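Hi team,

Filling in the usual template for the complex we talked about on Friday. All components are listed, including any nucleic acid strands or ligand strings, so the model treats them as one assembly.

SUBMITTER: L.P.
PURPOSE: interface mapping
COMPONENTS: three
RESIDUES: 604
SEQUENCES:
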Amino acid sequence: MAGTNNRGALMEDWMLPSPSPRTLMSNFWNEEFSSSPFSNIFSDNSSSKPLDGIDKSKTSFDSSGEGTVQETKASLLFESNLFDSNEKSTSHGGLAERMSARAGFGVLKIDTSRINSSAPVRSPVTIPPGVSPRELLESPVFLPSAIAQPSPTTGKLPFLMPHNCKSTTSPVPKKAEDCLHDNSAFSFQPLLRSKPPNFSTAEKGASVVHQNQSSENDNQQESSLPSNSTGTEDVTDANLIKPKTCDSMFDNDNPSPTDEQEESKENQNLEYSSALVISPAEDGYNWRKYGQKQVKNSEHPRSYYKCTHPDCPVKKKVERSQDGQITEIVYKGSHSHPLPPPNRRPSVPLSHFNDFQIDGQEDICFKHSHNATSSQGSTPNGHIHDVHSGVLETKLSGSLITTDIADKSVMESGEAVDVSSTISSSDKNDRGTHGFIPSTFDGDETESKRRKMDVLPQRTLPPVPLTWQLWHQGLSGSLGLLCKPQASNLHQRSQLAQASIAQFGNVAAYGSVCLPPQLSAASGGFCFGMLPSGMAVQVPSHGTAMPVHIPGHPPAMQRYQGLMLPRGEMKVNSQGLSSLPVATRTASAIYQQLMGRLPQGPQT
DNA sequence: AGCCTTTGACCAGCG
DNA sequence: TCGCTGGTCAAAGGC
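RESULT (copied from the run log):
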């Protein structure tokens, strides 16, 4: 269990030398973006050099070819998806709505059948339209709290949060600026799309706000950051994925140009035959609705939910449109417990959760890897706590990113897997046993599917003499890892991303900044994650309108907006935790490219 | 049986 | 103090 020491270590990992937001940002950007290896990932690969001279051939992934083309396509796709993905939707009613509400976000439908295409296993996450789907999207974040968490839900940022609302000259929306003056939660509105997403419930963009007691408010927006966008533009609530285009990102088969074109075209056309809808975030916690009211300044009724966990003070308000679309979610409070395990009711004693905890600080602990929405770590008491909270100590509450899934039983889990630990072979075993199985359905079906997932091929784990911390694990298997010490070091993060891929096979965090949203907010960064389905998950910075520019990254990746509210409140609309459908092959290509560019493994 | 939703009533804060 | 508004309570009923 990660005890106090671990916690302290984590803090060190995340804490930047200077407590000053500005300094922090400056350092971060200097380190992360000035010479970001990732920049090369999306730039001309021919000129790119493997980091530290590490031979990219070490990777088991085919990193050949497709580089530039794929990158370009990826960029285009991202852009395209930003605008178009919302067009597709399915409508859910009744149960779906309720589920989405319970989940904190909308129902998410994902067909990950193509995950690990070579595997004869269908995604446990395929959810028939109209049937309680739950979703999944996880981001390397949030967390939610995930939301999310992003995860957002549970994230706690000790010192970072206070600066989140600090804004100086950045194109912060008026509301964001307002946060400097008042504590009221607000949501930023996507400026790009005036057209409401045609998603069902969850899919539609919902604003997620984490109301926390602690943050102080400084907008952490650093206008000095280069940006090619206003930061208000790039909001996307794309939550759809076309399963057909979702090949495993680990599919080593290089797509033929034809396939690529087709897929790209398909994506662009948004012809999601079986739309894969991913909710912005579901927190994985169990909620009980205790009230509903029609608020004056809202056209939509507001529902009030409480976390059903005993003594957990977290509440959330959910507003949804008449058609069931969630328009806003506001979290309040911090969860005092880990995410509930999948298929378990809230009544399950907390102690049971320990079954999923990591045993040692230095040991990897994937005792349980079902969709963690937000990473959690073990407290000295043996309690799992959200990494964000534990490490960062803020009162950011709520889960931002999560994946809840289908009915009550679905993944509510995620427990945290903490984890600061070093990856070991034994861990691999655990992973195989506990894997990222999107628990998703009730009863036998869930079990059955879980078993199938367990059968997914495991990748060989390269020796990684590094201490890791799993800070996020998505239902679909996406996960984020933090390496420590010096997690802020991009190079290590790159390694981390690579290692995570190797380690967990089906997913890994990648991107400019493999940080939890909250932390990203503090640093002005953002995260990207890849789902097995090939969908890229964009984890927004929760910082105030933070245009992000990362040389070499696709345009769509260079912009993002999030808002950090005063006192730790976080509000992100659906776009805030959006997933970007990307042609699977493109995603694969990106991944492979990434793999090819990254050093073989983390180094301490 | 347990948990959840529904929904009207009640409470508290604020102008 | 009153009225408005948002938030919460709690009984009833559903699943």
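MY TAKE: Confidence is low (pLDDT under 50) at residues 1-207, 211-281, 344-604 of chain A. Residues 67-84 of chain A form the longest helix (18 residues).

Thanks, L.
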